[in-house]
Every structure is written in structure tokens, then in C-alpha cells.
Amino acid sequence: MNINRTPFFSRLFRALLVITLSTSGTVSASEATASLIQRLEKLQSIEADFVQFVVDKAGASVQESRGVLKAKRPGLFYWHTEPPLEQVIVSDGQHIIVYDPDLEQATVQPVSEQVSNTPALLFSGDVKKLGESYLVHHKQWDNTVDQYVLMPKGADSLFESLRLRFDKDILVEMRLTDSLGQKSTIGFNDAKINTGLSDKQFEFVIPEGTDIIRELTQ
Question: Rounded to the nearest 10 degrees, how much is the dihedral formed by the CA atoms of 118, 45, 106, 180?
């Protein structure tokens, strides 16, 4: 099996949801964009456990991982993947740290415009201009389940499509298809919304002895 150490959000930062029900309703792209912006602006912070599955273009399993996500507007983000492929990604709004304990290595880079336009923006950034970067489609089932599909407008996007699924205003799933056809599905469990996360929960001290690589924004 080909194991990719780099989880979903790390790939995006460094370069940088499906259900079937009997009845559904669709709205226009502009209405879908406005609906998603309104929903995301209400989400000032989120804390959840996650399970991530990655398959290749042929549908073969590439990776399965678990961990914790925390995010808070503006600009705070924490993503911790559990062993055996442990990795920590932290953003304080100014810099992003990607720490690999097994490699004893950490990458530090400024938050550039490219990074701020990744899916992490949905959780911790300013979403008012979401429609400038994405074409949004929206479907709703039984007045409780909402699905949004984001299609990047830019030719240099890091992914082909991003799908978000909400159940009663709680984010339960995210699915991403990248330019190589690899698909990442992230299920969120026990999500806690707007609980007043402390900024200190996004502070990270790189362990002594770690090889630190500092990248500059081009």
C-alpha cells in the first residue's frame, strides 16, 4: 500500500463533502453562495474529532487517519493527526507551523494569500468574498441536511471540488477531490460550535532539537 504521510490540510497548506435521499431541492449559484457565507459566518469556532479516508483515482485505499480539529476566527487553526502518521498543523493567523514528530522536523511559513484561499479559510478566515473564488451549488434534504459543493474558479486551484455537508447546522462531513483524482473524505464527530475556544489552545512550541525549515512567501 502506498502511504501518503501528508494529510488533507497539510497538503493544502504546504502548496498552499455523500448521501442519497429521496427528495431534494436546489437553488441558484448566487443564493447558494449567500447561504453558505451566512452559515459559515455563524461558525465562529469549531472543535471536533475527525476520521479521514483517502482513496486514489482507482478507488484504492491510500490512507486512514484520526485526529482533532480546532479553529477560531480570525485566523486560528489547529489540526492534529494521531500516530502512527502523527502530524500537527497550527496557524496563529500570521504563520503556519507543520510539525512532523517522526521526522523531528517543522516547517514554518507566513500565511500567504494562496494559503488563505484554501479550505481552511472556511473555518478560520474571512468568507465574505467566497464567491470570488468558488462557484457554489446547494442542495437540501428534509429541511435538516444541507450540502454545498464548491468548484474553484481559478485554473491553478489545488483541488477540483470541495463538498460540505451540514446536519442541523452542524458540519458532519467534508469531501475533497484533488487535481490527480485522489479523494479525501473527512467525517467530523462530536463537533462543538462557538464554545469560546481560548486563543492559548492555538499556541504551539516547537520541541527542542527539531529541525526547523523556514519558508518565505513568494
Answer: -30
Please state the pTM of the whole predicted model: 0.79
Instruction: Tell me how far apart the alpha carbons of residues 44 and 51 are, in angstroms, rounded to a whole number.
Output: 22
Sequence letter at residue 145: V
The string of pLDDT tens digits covering residues 84-125 is: 889 999 998 888 999 999 999 999 988 875 554 566 667 877
Report the greatest alpha carbon distance in the chain. Answer: 57
Quick count: other Cβ atoms within 10 Å of Cβ 153?
11
Which secondary structure element, helix H or strand E, spans residue 212, and what is its range? Answer: strand 211-214
pLDDT for the residue 118: 60
Whether residue 45 contacts residue 169, with contact meaning beta carbons closer than 8 Å, is answered with: no
Q: Is 94 exposed, middle or buried (0-12, 13-18, 19+ CB in 10 A)?
A: exposed
Question: Right CATH number for 9-16+21-194 from 3.30.470.30, 2.60.34.10, 3.40.50.300, 2.50.20.10?
Answer: 2.50.20.10
Q: Give the DSSP H or E segment for 178.
A: strand 170-178
